[in-house]
TrEMBL record:
Residues 21-314 form the Histone deacetylase domain. Pfam families: Hist_deacetyl. PANTHER family: HISTONE DEACETYLASE HDAC1, HISTONE DEACETYLASE HDAC1-RELATED. This is Acetoin utilization protein AcuC. Keywords: Acetoin catabolism. The gene is acuC.
């Protein structure tokens, strides 16, 4: 396998919504430092991105919106375009910083498309809520959608997008809701209980793309085993039927039980299990081609650096043993900056991620979502929604 590509430069820290905003770029810096201290990035040439140009942004965004983003730091709030809200405050250099995030995911996509890497990862990406003409949910430009659009124009006829963020991947779903070439799958906290209030099982696509928008709305409190039970009951079968040529995954870690903005109850061990499974599915269904990006995650010290270090390690085939202790230098730097921070001892939450497959044993809380999604989607792919073998 060609060496995986890792896109990173400190300039990506410029996507900074400021003040006490939860989308704090320090989570990226701490992740890279932790991965470096653990040797995950030893010998890896980090790829330095440039900003996406307007032509690339126009793949999914309206020209008037792009201009509004450019002008906002000078003109102030523009609520019609979602700029200047509590979620998406205006900041200096907003267009440039946002375009750089898109450019970083495009660089990762390009490395795969050009055959220079089979896998690529950009933890600064994953801005999956941005809409064609509006900022939304901390996201100004939608790097995921732009990269998928670019891939469709550069040799890929079928793209599978799997979103593991706690929030529904609404922006990406919107971009490809009527495009049968893109399978979007989102596993998220039930929209009745969490913003953005979309992502019901009945949202299946339209205009000849019915069955290519897939949503698994999970009940609050879902733990690792339930999440993985739901994933396995839906995703592998659909990937097998859809036959994608590349797997794009948004790997938000706000599904963790300590995340302050949501109510799922996954662990760092669960996140590690998800990444390993995504890697397996890419090997099985897309000849190993896998583009991974970051996303949400708001427990900045205890969760994001550990989970995304596992992501980097998984993409690089340098899996970190969960029993690994956190490096003393990394811990000391955190302690100096935040003396009251409670730092976990190692790369695990000591959780068992085993699960009972759907169709075996008694019903679990996630089974309503599983049944609703399978019944909405599986017949459109020639699969039996009630047969656990499909």
């Amino acid at each position: 396998m060609r060496a995986p590509a890792v896109v990173w430069d400190s300039s990506l820290l410029g996507y900074d919504l400021g003040g006490e905003h939860p989308f704090n770029p320090v989570r990226l810096e701490l992740t890279i430092r932790l991965a470096t201290e653990l040797g995950v990035l030893d010998g890896v040439e980090l790829l330095i991105p440039g900003p996406a140009g307007e032509d690339e942004l126009r793949r999914v965004h309206l020209g008037e919106y792009i201009e509004a983003v450019r002008q906002a730091p000078m003109t102030g709030a523009d609520f019609a375009h979602g700029l200047g809200t509590e979620d998406n405050p205006v900041f200096t250099g907003m267009h440039e910083a946002s375009a750089l995030v898109v450019g970083s995911t495009l660089l990762a996509a390009r490395k795969i498309a050009e055959g220079e890497a089979t896998r690529a990862v950009n933890i600064a990406g994953g801005l999956h809520h941005a809409m064609p003409g509006k900022a939304s949910g901390f996201c100004v430009y939608n790097d995921c959608s732009v990269a998928i659009s670019w891939l469709l124009d550069h040799g890929f006829e079928r793209v599978a997008y799997v979103d593991t963020d706690v929030h529904h991947g609404d922006g990406v779903q919107t971009a490809f809701y009527d495009d049968p070439r893109v399978l979007t799958v989102s596993l998220h906290q039930h929209p009745f209980t969490l913003w953005p209030g979309t992502g019901y099982s009945a949202e299946i696509g339209k205009g000849g793309a019915e069955g290519t928008s897939v949503n698994l709305p999970l009940p609050p409190g879902t733990r690792d085993g339930g999440w993985l039970r739901a994933f396995e009951a839906v995703v592998p079968s659909l990937l097998e039927q859809f036959r994608p040529q590349i797997l794009v995954t948004q790997c938000g870690v706000d599904s963790h039980e300590e995340d302050p903005l949501a109510d799922l109850s996954l662990s760092v061990d669960g996140h590690r299990a998800i990444y390993r499974r995504l890697r397996e599915l890419a090997e099985t269904h897309t000849a190993g081609r896998w583009l991974a990006v970051g996303g949400g995650g708001y427990q900045l010290i205890r969760v994001v650096p550990r989970s995304w270090t596992h992501l980097l390690a998984t993409v690089l085939d340098r899996d970190v043993d969960p029993a690994t202790s956190l490096p003393p230098n990394w811990v000391a730097s955190i302690t100096r900056a935040a003396p009251k921070a409670e730092i976990p001892p190692g790369m695990s939450d000591d959780r068992d991620t085993a699960f009972v497959p759907w169709g075996d044993g008694e019903d679990e809380p996630v089974d309503i979502a599983i049944r609703d999604t399978r019944r909405a989607i599986f017949p459109l792919h020639g699969l039996d929604p009630d047969d656990p073998r499909d």
